[in-house]
Amino acid sequence: MRSSIFGNRRQALDYRNGEGTPQRALSCRVVPYTTEHKALVAELQRHLASPDVRLNASYIEWKYHQNPYIRDPLIYLAFVGDKLVGMRGAFGTRWEVGDPAEFLTLPYVDDLVIDPAYRGQGLHRVIMNFALRDLAGRGYRYVVNLSASRVTVEASMNMQWRNAGKVKPLHRRTSRKDAAEFLVNRTRRLPFVWRWADNFSALSGRSGDHLFDSFDARFSGSDQLRDPGSLFAQRTPLTREMGQLVARLPRDGRIRHVRDETYFAWRFAHPFRNYRFLYVGRERPRGYLVLQQTPSVNGDRACIVDWEAESDLIRAELLSAAIEHGGFPELYVWQLGASPSSTQLLERHGFKSLHAPHENSILVRSVHDDELNAPWMLGGHPLDDAKRWDLRMIYSMLG
After folding, report:
1. CA dihedral of 69, 86, 164, 162, whole degrees rounded to 10
2. Cβ contacts of 325 within 8 Å, gap of 6 or more
3. How far apart are CA 109 and CA 92, in angstroms?
4. Rounded distance, CA 86 to CA 121, Å?
5. How far is it, in rounded angstroms, from Cα 141 to Cα 144?
6. Which fold has domain 4-166+360-376?
7. Residues 208, 299: contact at Cβ < 8 Å?
8. Helices in 302-351 by DSSP H: which ranges?
9. Backbone φ, ψ for residue 366 (5° rounding)
10. What is the rounded CA–CA span in Å between residue 32 and residue 34?
């Protein structure tokens, strides 16, 4: 097993939150992950993913061991003595750019976890520096992150990542959801009552395990089998047909993730997500819309994570069906990268900008420190220019 002992690098610094006050990095050793570490990593993930260690183990298996683009799991672990205190992962993504397309594999850096007892001691910088050197040695040139938290964004910018642009979220809420949100915000300010404020969020309507009840009921009957051109929905994806639809549509040359049968089969096996798949055209799908729910976060929100069609008319039919038959308290979508016609369609259906305290961004970095001031290009496109990206939520780990 390769390892790097950082105990002698006591002058390593961590500039936290953009402040100019350096801290000495905690003495630790960083090693690459092997399968013998899987149980330890699943336990550490309780501070980030789920309190269920078995579920965390299935997440690690799916994301790193079953990844179709980088077979050797790239996870970097920080130990203090025999105790695992921190980790950073990098899983495989496959991008296409240009027409005809050029294909490139990029590590997507994710899953930053530091044991709470060891935070604020410079571990992230130490782990990330080790990871960048290792990835450079494996022949990669750039890394990306499309789902960084606010804390991770701040730490990344201090390590000379570049922010290519914000995702510009849009959402559509029912009046009942707005009323519930208003009530929650007001009661949080009241003495004693604030303790029960979060319980009022259930007033928004269906949530949790019941979010898709109306949607499933609408598409569970035999009537949807009668017309081969009609709308229909499934809980499992038609991965081959979806990939074929994407392949036969024209591309505009922007940077986008590969969406083929292999990718869809892997991506929609995420153990922490609930998906529904809406289609037009049973014999040969002419369009699809993918809805997603993260039960543990915003349980009354359905996200449109991918949306593709042969025409604007079919795209409109899919969106209207999701709104009408879903009855979701909140529908959420990323605007960055969407076509003008899709943006106009969303606005006509009442989607508005969501001004969140932190919007996710496209974060990119060269793994070579001697290229930090150089242009970062992918297939002739500036990697740090959001206009060159065809971005969809499904490309990120929030999808």
Report:
1. -120
2. 214, 215, 218, 219
3. 9
4. 11
5. 11
6. Aminopeptidase (3.40.630)
7. yes
8. 312-326, 340-348
9. -75, 140
10. 7
Task: For residue range 25-42, list pLDDT tens digits in order.
Answer: 678 999 999 999 999 999
Which residues, 6 or more positions from 197, have their beta carbon under 8 angstroms from its beta carbon? 184, 187, 188
| Domain locations in the chain as residue ranges | 4-166+360-376, 169-353
The structure's pTM equals: 0.86
| Residue range 279-325, pLDDT digits in tens | 999 889 999 999 999 987 777 999 999 999 999 999 999 999 999 99
End-to-end CA distance of the chain: 34
Strands (E), the chain: 4-5, 13-15, 22-24, 29-32, 74-80, 83-97, 102-114, 142-145, 162-166, 169-173, 231-234, 256-257, 274-280, 287-293, 301-309, 330-334, 352-353, 361-366, 377-378, 381-382
Give CATH superfamily name and number for 169-353.
Gcn5-related N-acetyltransferase (GNAT) (3.40.630.30)
For β-strands 330-334 and 287-293, DSSP reports them as: unpaired
